[in-house]
Amino acid sequence: MFRSYEAGRQDYVTLIANYIPFQNPQGGPYFYQFDQNGLYEIHGDNVGDAQEHLTFQFRFKNTSKKLALKVGDKDVLLPFINSGPLSAVNDPKLNVRETYTVDLVRGDRRSGTKTSLTNAAGGGTEFDKPVDNIGDKTFGSATGCEDYANKHIYSVAIPGCAAPGRVFVGQRKEPFNIAVGKIFDLFNLNPLGAEVNGNKNDLENKNISSIALEVPISCLTTAGEPVIGAYTTASVRQGRLINPSPKGLNNATKEGGAWAQVSRVGMPLVNEVVIGMDDKDRFNASKPSGDAQFINYVTNPTLPAVVQTLFPAAKAPTNFPRTDLVTVFLQGLEGLNQPKNVVPSEMLRLNTTIAPVAPAAQNPLGVAANDKAGFPNGRRPGDDVVDLSLRVSMGALCALTGAGYTLKVGCKPADAPAGALALTDGVRKDATTFKAAFPYLNTPIPGSFNN
User: Fold this and answer.
1) Per-domain residue ranges for the chain?
2) Residues contacting 103, CB < 8 A, separation 6+
3) Torsion of CA 357, 362, 364, 367, to 10 degrees
4) Which residue in 270, 429, 373, 433 sits closest to 14, CA to CA?
5) Nearest to 394 by CA among 418, 427, 413
6) Sheet of 165-173: strands edge to edge?
7) What's the rounded Cα separation, in Å, for the pair 322 and 295?
8) How many H helices and E strands in the chain?
9) I need a labelling partner for 226 at 20 to 30 A (CA). Which of 136, 251, 358, 444 fits?
């Protein structure tokens, strides 16, 4: 979540929710489809009370076109997702048409007022999702897939908004950068090594499925409160039966009942390295309004203790409860991105009055490097949230309090002996390695290259 830095779009906020990680590009024959039995949501809190007040709901439909070939005297259905090169929206050679709708709910996500986003060019509430990057032969050239994908960026009329927004849903190159193998192998790396090219980005050759939405700032904020909070969830029906006689596409289950939330993401890496193993599913099913049940994971975190165990010279902070972590993860920093009447809860928070920074001028260390348009004031694609989260967990905010900063986080440099260390996983990119325009994330890696 960040103020759009595409030229001329500074009055908008871009929200990107990524799903289905670790995609190998060679994903045939189905490739990676959103779940048509699922509900994907982006929630916004523009009051600061830990409740959703705006929710954008995405629902998907996958329709078989039943493409067939005449084989002898029989018309036989194709086993492939396309029958030839692709270039157009809903191309006739595409065997499965993926479409989606977007609804805006004001108020409670289940009982609030729901209206539909419509195509600003001619109306309609159904939008096409591009098929994944099958390969260069399918799209005609190395740039063919991006030309095709760009045809699926829609200008949308948002009910109650004076100006249209934009939406794109489709596969992108995985934007997250992390030495994930080494980190989860007991930090099998030098945490004070080179910050750039110190380790391999394990996600470099992966793709992901993205939901990208650009909304006018004026539609997201309320009078007198420029800070917005946001998080994304996915839900499925509570009941699921295996269909013993499936017929047709995506008909292997029968699902019904109320929605049950099974995924939640706001601030980066919270579920992965903050929440205890036994509570990860509970956290995924929870709302920010119930975050008091997880407070011990923030006030008494295990990650710094683990780091100290593995690297004894990196002493964990000694201030308990960790008010610095409560501030950055649950409230926002006062004077930066903390709502006026904040109720502590975990979500990304963005001060929409802080101007966006052009890609070449962005600092991947964000606020810590005096780039106030970056993490933890929202999050941009080029922000190094792994290094920043590691440093904050080891007390970076306590160290900054005594370095000319006026952060009110309830601790001092002496509380965090390792707080000033440049801890890193050795993997870093910056904004210039991403697209400079919506949807900002790069072309997905093709399943097959032309040689």
Assistant:
1) 2-433
2) 56, 57, 59, 114, 115, 116, 117
3) -50
4) 373
5) 418
6) 2-3, 12-23, 207-216, 165-173, 154-157, 118-119
7) 10
8) 11, 16
9) 358
Distance from C-alpha of 340 to C-alpha of 332, rounded to nearest angstrom:
10
The answer to whether the beta carbons of residues 128 and 97 sit under 8 Å apart is yes
**C-alpha to C-alpha distance for 103 and 106, rounded to whole angstroms:** 10
Q: Two tokens at 436?
A: 């400079």
Nearest to 94 by CA among 128, 119, 123: 128
Instruction: Report the C-alpha gap between 121 and 26 in whole angstroms.
Output: 34
Of 382, 411, 380, the closest CA to residue 396 belongs to 411
At 186-212, the pLDDT tens digits run 999 999 999 999 999 999 999 999 999
User: How many whole angstroms separate alpha carbon 356 and alpha carbon 12?
Assistant: 10
How is residue 62 written in tokens?
A: 């996958």
> Do the beta carbons of residue 357 and residue 370 sit within 8 Å?
no
The two structure tokens encoding residue 161? 């908004």
Q: pLDDT tens digits, residue range 276-321?
A: 999 999 999 999 999 999 999 999 999 999 999 999 999 999 999 9
Stretches where the chain sits below pLDDT 70 are 403-406, 451
SS3 178: coil
